[in-house]
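Researcher: We plan to redesign the surface later, but first we want a full-length starting point. Tokens attached.
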């Protein structure tokens, strides 16, 4: 029997469950530019303890942000996934829709939950007048890259990193 998955807007009562899933899926080898910029990583060389704290604070800020949509996936009463998108005005004047952090508990991967979270985010961005969608993922995060390609995303650029010596 297929599990019943519910996708709904995240509420403040969901923060601990979302952080739990984030801790489970966070992998320091998946560091992208966003993790460096947000203070979740200090480089691609290994774990950076503040990542979870920074993420939790971001969730609280985004919950109060009208230009963001946070979703959770639940099976029965268990929170098993989350996704976050934000609308931004580009310097050129148009609206971009950034798909930020997304995660699905390992036990629930491969069951379409990532797609079920991403699709309403993209519909929301489309309705809001976004010209395109953007996201980042680490170069070694093959599972995420495959899912985003299935959703119609393609690689746009490669960000290179070098520490100041």
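Model: Full-length starting sequence:
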């Amino acid at each position: 029997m297929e599990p019943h998955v519910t996708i709904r807007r995240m509420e403040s009562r969901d923060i601990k469950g979302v952080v739990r899933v984030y801790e489970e899926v966070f992998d320091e080898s998946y560091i992208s530019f966003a993790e460096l910029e947000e203070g979740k990583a200090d480089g691609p060389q290994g774990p950076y303890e503040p990542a979870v704290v920074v993420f939790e604070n971001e969730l609280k800020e985004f919950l109060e942000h009208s230009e963001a949509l946070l979703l959770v996936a639940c099976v029965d009463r268990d929170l098993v996934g989350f996704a976050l998108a934000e609308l931004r005005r580009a310097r050129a004047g148009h609206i971009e829709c950034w798909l930020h952090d997304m995660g699905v508990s390992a036990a629930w991967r491969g069951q379409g939950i990532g797609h079920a979270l991403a699709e309403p985010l993209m519909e929301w961005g489309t309705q809001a007048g976004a010209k395109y969608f953007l996201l980042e993922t680490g170069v070694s995060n093959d599972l995420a890259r495959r899912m985003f390609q299935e959703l119609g995303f393609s690689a746009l650029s490669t960000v290179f990193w070098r520490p100041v010596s």
